[in-house]
Automatic annotation (TrEMBL):
Pfam family, one: Lactamase_B
Positions of the Metallo-beta-lactamase domain: 220-398
Name of the protein this chain belongs to: MBL fold metallo-hydrolase
Organism field: Hominenteromicrobium mulieris
Amino acid sequence: MHYFEKVFDGQVLKWCVNGAELGGGKPTLLCLVSNETEAESCLSKLEPHCGEAQVTALILPGGILPETAVQSLVFEWQTTGIIDKCKLSLTASQSCADAAWQLISHLSHCFSAAAILGGHADPYEVRAAKFMPLKVYTFAGEGNVLADGKVLADAEKLVMSLRVTGSETVERTEINPENAWENVFADGEIVRWLLKQDRRTQLEVTWIKPGFWRIDDYFTATCYLIEGRDKALLIDTGMGEGDLLDTVKKLTRLPVEVAITHPHRDHMFRIDRFEKVYLHKNDVEKIREDENCFAAALSDGGKYPQLVPIDEGSVIDLGGGVTVDVLNLGGHTENSVVFACAHYKALFTGDAIGSGYIVLMICPEKDMYKVLESYKKNLECFLPHAEALRDYAWFGGHSIQENGCDEQHQQDYLAGRSVYYNPLRLEIVQDMVVLCEKLITGEISKADVMSTDEHYCNYGSAGMYFRFI
Ligand SMILES: [Zn+2]
Ligand SMILES: [Zn+2]
C-alpha cells in the first residue's frame, strides 16, 4: 500500500487511496482510521463496492482528530478538483467514530453524507449536521462520558439530539458490536448510498420567525420565503439542484410567487419551476429582446414563466397588510433591487451590497469608473431608506458571508474559531459610499486595486472586488 503524506498546520497527515492517487473529480469516500492495519483492512472492504468512485483512508493516530489540519487537507482536495467537492462522504473505523462526529459537527458543509458506528460527541454541536444524510449504527448499553468537564453523548443520544431539532435525514440502526464494521459494510449497500449523496441537491431550511424562512443551498446562495395572508413570496431561487419548489410547498400552503433581486444564475436558477416571477423591468425587457440572455436561469428546455416587471416604488402585496417594497440599488448588476418588508421588519439585499464581505463589481475594465459613478449615485439614493431601515434585520444573498468569503474558514463559527463577523447593516452602505468616492477621486488608485489578487479594495466595513469581463 502506498501512503501519501503532507504537513498541514504543523501536523503530518498520512492517507492511502484505492488506485494510484486521488484525481479526476470523482465521488469520494473518506474513511477515518487510527493506524495502517485499519487503513488496509478498511480499504480492502470498501473498495470492491466503490465502482468508478474513489475511497481514501486517513490515519488519525489514537483516533484523535487534528481538526484544522484535516480541514486544510479536505479543502485542498475540494478546491483542486481532484475529488467531486459535492460528493465527499465520510465514514470511520470504530476507533475513529468520535473524530467523524466532530468533523460533521464542525465542517458540516464539507460532506455530502456520513455513516458512523458508535462514538461520542457534543450533542449540541452535532446539530449543525441536521440536514446531512446520516446513517448511525448504535450499540446497546452505551452511555454518556464526561471529558474535560464536558458531556459527550453516545451515538443513540446524538441521533435524538438531531431528531429534536427536526432532522429528517438521520437514520439509526442498532447493531451487535461483534464484527460491527465488517457487517455494516459487507454487502456494499452503505458504500453505494454514501457515494450517491450529493450536496448539490441538499437544501437547508432555517426558521426565522412565524411565516418567514431562510433556505441555503450548496453554493451558499440564500433564498427567503415570507408569507402574507393570501400568498407567499420566495425571494430568489438560489442555485441548488434540489427540489426547491417541493421544499417551499412543504413550508407554506399559500400560492408562491417569486421575486428576484438580480438575474445571476445563483439567484434565479430554475425559475421556470415557478409560475410568476417579479424582476426589474429592464431585465424583463432584456429577456423580451433576447430569450437567451439569462438562459442559465432555466432548467434544460425550460421556458420563462410569467414575468412581472418591477421598479423603484413597486409594491408586492401578499395580503393581510403584508407588503414588500421594491428599492433600486444597481451596481453589482445594473438593475439590482432590494426588497423591504415592514411586516417582518426585514430588508433583503441580494448581492447589492455584498453579504457582509465584499460587493462584486462585474464590468469591462474600461467601464470601471462609469460603473462606480452609477453605483455611488444609486447608493446615495438608497441611503435615506437604509437609515430609516437601520433597525430592520438585513438579509443578504449569501448568508454565510457574514463570516467572510474565505471558503476554507466559512464554517469556523461552528467550532468556535471564527475570526470574522461583518453583518449587513447601515454602516456598510455608508462606508460603501465613501469607498466609491475614494476610488472615483483617485485617493484609492486603480493601480492599488489592480495590484491585489482579486482587484480588491476596502474602506471600513465595505469591500469591493472587480471582475473585469
Ligand atoms: Zn450576483
Ligand atoms: Zn450571488
